[in-house]
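ugh ok so i messed up the first submission bc i forgot one of the chains. this is the corrected input, ALL of the components this time, i swear. 891 residues overall. if the numbers dont match what u have on ur side tell me asap before i send this to the collaborators (the ones from the other lab, u know who)
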Amino acid sequence: MGWVTEYHPTTDELNACVQCGLCLPACPTFRLTGRETASPRGRIQAMKAVHNGILQVDQPFQGVIDFCLGCRACEPVCPGMVPYGRALEGARAEIAAQRPGFSHRARSVLLGRVIGSRGSLRAGSAALRAAQSTGATSLAPTRLRRLAAGLRPLQGRPRATVGHSGGSGESGKVALLAGCIQDEWFRPVNHAAIALLEMAGYRVEVPAGQTCCGALAAHDGKADAARALARRNMPVFTGYDQVVVTSAGCSAHVREYGHWAPAGEQVGERAVDVTVVVARAIEIGLLPRLRVGSGPIAVQDPCHLRHAQRVTAEPRSILQAGGFDVVEIDPAGMCCGAAGLYSVLQPEASTELGNRKATQIRSTGVTRVASANPGCEMQLRSALGARYEIAHPIEWYLRGVMAADESGRVAGVRTAR
Amino acid sequence: MSLVQDLRAVLGDDRVLEEPVELYLYSRDASLMQGQATCVAFPHTTAEVAAVVRVAEAHGVPIIPRGAGTGLAAGAIPIDGGIVLSTTSMNQIELDVENRTAWVGAGVINLDLTKEAEPYGLSFAPDPSSQSACTIGGNVANNSGGAHCLAEGATTSHVLGLEVVLAGGEVLVLGGQAPDMPGLDLKGLIVGSEGTLGVVTRALVRLLPIEADVRTLLLDFEELSAATRTVSDVIAAGLVPAALEIMDQKMTTAVENWLRAGLPCDCAAILLAEVVGEPEAVEAEAALVSRIGMQNGARNVQVARDEEERAMLWKGRKSAFGAVAQVSPNYYLHDTVVPRSRLVETMEEVQAIADRHGLDVYNVFHAGDGNLHPLMAFDASDPVMLEKVHRAGEEMVAACLARGGALSGEHGIGLEKRDMMRDDFTDIDLDAQARLKEAFDPSGLFNPAKVLPEGSRCFDFGGVRREIPDGAWV
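and heres the new structure output, hopefully the right one now
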């Protein structure tokens, strides 16, 4: 066996693949290259070969694994139910342990300590805000410049979310995971979530002491860091009816907390993406359904919502309840190429996938886009340009509700404080 | 220069692979077999394929054409070294809507062709269960069938022309738009030849208009034989439905566990029947199928309410093999055919063989065609089990042949059934096939060791003997 850490892909995970190949066409990197080495089946078979001592964790193996987006589009099409995301995280942890280069060490610090610390995050975003307002982002290297182009303009400082508590509680008591990057650069999404959940009668708390969920670290093979972050969060989020998460990548990860520590199961089972809670609240009448025309909007499915959590109806029903005409852009739900750090580590494939998605959106003629994940939002913005307005489905919905409320078109809405 | 250097001179560095992990992955397909590739080449054009063939000849190295690698008969395994020629980059589709045909690159995915044709009201009829992944090149090589080939025929009925690269890098176009080309039917010869005569680079395929109406019925039975009898009775009544597919309880349970489509798992078998055509005819045929089912003891007849429900049923049927992975890490299945009238007794015999060896057998099959896929789920790391499965498989094939059946319905012979060819063909038959192979491929470089067993030629001059290596298991 060529593994050295406790995180390695297990026999059961790997044996679930019978090489049928039904995953191939769902995989964006296979679609880009037509290569077995860039396919889910190929990657699982490569892991199996390492598992059985036939291959080593060497540079070519790393190449095969690194090229994966981690979009998990292979999971819903797999009749053998291979837990691909799990196996991938395991293989990445092995690569990080067995092939530790400068880049891996640097990412370890970034994904473990920097984004796990509110102070570092705040300092980073203050620097970025300054760079944005002076135009200094254009001096960054190409890879980072693309990333910066995808950010929302940071104007001023919206009031803090962590520490907030409010709402009646007649519908239940929920905790909100504010997230790291989500709360620094996409805080309006968290405010929208708080407003809507309180409007729906929930007691909403954003407990202090919480930290980054650890998704980015786990996806990048920084398993120890991911576990440490999960352990910090677990006690903070215990004791709530639900743990609401506003970024699809994070909700998918928190739902799998049970894997990272036995005690994580309880939090994992109660974790839910905000789109699921809001859609349900609309469905049972806790939040209004607008009949007004808000115009067309294109909906993009984040992979960690669509593939990892099989959530597709909810963002659409939220937008429809907000009076929007939902325009589909991609029946196959192919990854936009953001994929966490992928856009920085594999810029070529990432840009190509981003451009493909942008072409699909442009061809609809719609300039408003809904995406439930910050990474996708950034990728789409940098591929589409500033003319396009991109926001989370619940932000679009809240906007519709507020506008309708002002013009008196919705009766009985408890307006958000 | 070395083989790889020569190939790189033709294709460029990044289109020839030779790292161990790359070779490992291209030494496998969806079968249980493992070969050893020398290198992998990705030509983009027919001219590049011809150039690869010339390089291979200069080095005396075999060429193994490969599409998606979804074959179950080990047809794409480089058994003893060779260039694995991947067709996936040859994926252009040129639709000719007026003539209802298309020139299609060998690497085009079957379902992508249908998706491309759908906006024009057309579709490509052959629909193997792997259609979402498998390529047209692979379909041509294996003369693939599919659930909907009952009424429409397998791939060969839908191929009008082929572009093939032959020995010496010669490019030949066979057949064409005319429905019945004069001269010998060489195109018919290439279809189903499993890459042993040359490399198919493009195919001119027939597209069919999408039927006005469709109805998909799900019948469930307390006896597998009742489902099978229903199929015989439906056809005896003069109907040729678009599809008649059976799954037994074990298979249905595995699929349902993944799909959550509400398939009935408490019955012995389900029958999926689809009728197509004009609305009135569809109505009448659906009623007839349902009546025949009830006469044979069907507990329920459900009709798919909409396209979504219909798609779900087919997704379940077409994912059946993969679903077995939930139960065991490996599976082995045989693809044999018996006359429809002997389906009931054959199924009973298959079960008896499995019982005798203490094996789990799952059944999912194209009942309308009498095409069985008895599938044994097991763990290949247990050598005793492996041997049992091997023997049971042989007995199942023998049972089918004894009932006037054939060795393969649609998956091909490949390496898997090569040595069983003698059970189905006489020496004279095999000699004729071997002469044909020799005429096309005098140096024996196109997908060697496949289909024809060693010594098929009555006066076997030998050439290079390509034995299956020790330890490999087909």
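quick check: Chain A has a mean pLDDT of 91. that seems consistent at least. The longest strand of chain A covers residues 172-177.
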